[in-house]
Amino acid sequence: MEELSIRIKIADREYPMKVKPEDEERVRQAGRLINERIAAYKNQFGIEDKQDLLAMVAFDSLVEKMSSEEKQQAFGKALAEKVNHLNQIVSQSIL
User: Would you say 54 and 48 are in contact if contact means Cβ atoms under 8 Å apart?
Assistant: First the structure.
């Protein structure tokens, strides 16, 4: 499958990328979200330094990712426990 050559602007700098056609919109949306977060931190804290703003966005994004993964793991564990419980009920009712 052929990749598309696109340019994403983040913090006033353009970055060339090659992406699969099915990933293009997700990549563009990620760029928009990064820029929105940069603008929010800039407004909230009055920070002008792009490197500081990017570091804050990266840190915030990683904390969100870690939190999401923890919630997903907890959900998976709870789901597995419920399935095991249901399997036990079904096994007992068959006997």
Answer: no
Across the chain, which has 95 residues, the per-10-residue mean pLDDT values are 94 96 97 97 96 97 97 96 94 82
Number of domains in the chain: 1
Amino acid 69: pLDDT: 97
pTM of the model: 0.78
AA letter at 24: E
pLDDT in the model for residue 95: 65
**Is the CB of residue 9 less than 8 Å from the CB of residue 35?**
yes
Instruction: Give me the domain span that covers residue 12.
Output: 4-94
DSSP per-residue letters across 79-92:
HHHHHHHHHHHHHH
